[in-house]
């Protein structure tokens, strides 16, 4: 494993953010066609945001590669890096929250990947079992700290995610992380591996977009439209999923649904973050 391996992992993560941004169409999300349901975000802003995170992605991976202490200590180190990464992102975007959720997840995924590869004397490409082992490391890294966060919420200064937890018991991306990202392990990565055998990357990730919107708990949708709007999006995308659309039909459906979500001011930001994480692992496994 070379001294520059952390740079390779960071490049894969940054490439994943840029691919997710470029994937078009994506209902309600910024892509090459439009700004989705966002008034304060556009394509160039997401590029700036992605590039602002690159050096911190290197730091996450390096932290994992070099770590010799407890996994809890690795989380503390990654969280410290993450605070600086978020500050850099907000400087680049002039205060717009473009990648806060993605930064959180890549802090965990990159540090866990570095730690796994170093301690198991492995390199890229990953096997599917390696990706699963990396994700299964994450609860040991973060679960106790995240549970403590939930128990000590500052009710005077609530984030969107904290409001959802207090009002509906939804733990969002922090709950996913504390459980080892079951959406990745059990839903997205198996679907992508199978889809990429017969489809282009864009076709596979368009199918993945629909799959995620039909299944995941999406705090962005809930924040903008409430529980009812989120459940309606799930119902509509599950119906489309059941139709087994061709690649051309799916692109048309996603484009039409983009107009629908823009009119309703709904944006499935949780889906976007999972698409980027899925692309990272597909690159790391050598399937892209």
Report on this model:
About 75% of the residues lie in helices and about 0% in strands. By secondary structure, the protein is mainly α. The protein has one domain (about 5-285). Helix 3 crosses helix 5, helix 8 (about 180-200) packs antiparallel against helix 9 (about 200-215) and helix 9 (about 200-215) packs across helix 10. The radius of gyration is 18 Å and the shape is globular. The mean pLDDT is about 90. It comes from Streptococcus pantholopis. Its EC number is 2.4.2.52. InterPro entries: CitG (IPR002736), TriPribosyl-deP-CoA_syn_CitG (IPR017551).
Search tags:
288 residues; CitG; triphosphoribosyl-dephospho-CoA synthase activity; transferase
Helix content: over 70%
* Structural Rg: 18 Å
Which regions have little confidence, pLDDT < 50, spanning 5+ residues? none
Number of beta-strand segments: 0
What is the string of SSEs from the N terminus onward?
HHHHHHHHHHHH
**Proportion of strand residues:** under 5%
Measured distance between first and last alpha carbons:
21 Å
Short description:
This protein is an all-alpha fold and about 290 residues long. It has helices at about 5-20, 45-65, 70-95, 100-120, 130-150, 160-170, 170-180, 180-200, 200-215, 220-240, 245-265, 270-285. The protein has one domain.
């Amino acid at each position: 494993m070379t001294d520059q391996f952390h740079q390779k992992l960071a490049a894969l993560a940054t490439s994943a953010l840029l691919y997710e941004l470029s994937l078009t169409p994506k209902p309600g999300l910024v892509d090459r066609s439009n700004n989705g349901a966002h008034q304060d975000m556009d394509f160039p802003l997401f590029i700036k945001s992605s590039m602002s995170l690159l050096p911190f992605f290197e730091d996450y991976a390096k932290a994992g590669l070099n770590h010799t202490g407890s996994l809890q200590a690795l989380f503390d180190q990654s969280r410290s890096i993450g605070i600086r990464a978020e500050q850099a992102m907000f400087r680049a975007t002039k205060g717009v929250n473009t990648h806060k959720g993605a930064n959180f997840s890549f802090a965990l995924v990159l540090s866990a990947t570095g730690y796994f590869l170093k301690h198991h004397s492995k390199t890229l490409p990953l096997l599917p079992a390696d990706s699963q082992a990396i994700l299964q490391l994450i609860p040991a890294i973060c679960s106790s700290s995240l549970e403590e966060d939930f128990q000590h919420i500052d009710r005077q200064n609530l984030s969107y995610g904290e409001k959802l937890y207090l009002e509906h018991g939804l733990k969002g991306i922090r709950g996913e992380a504390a459980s080892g990202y079951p959406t990745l392990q059990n839903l997205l990565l198996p679907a992508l591996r199978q889809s990429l055998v017969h489809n282009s990357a864009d076709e596979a990730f368009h199918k993945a977009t629909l799959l995620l919107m039909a299944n995941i708990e999406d705090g962005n949708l809930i924040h903008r439209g409430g529980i009812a709007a989120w459940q309606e999006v799930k119902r509509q995308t599950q119906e489309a999923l059941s139709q087994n659309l061709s690649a051309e039909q799916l692109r048309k459906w996603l484009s039409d649904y983009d107009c629908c979500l823009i009119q309703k001011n709904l944006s499935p930001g949780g889906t976007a973050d999972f698409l980027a994480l899925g692309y990272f692992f597909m690159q790391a496994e050598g399937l892209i």
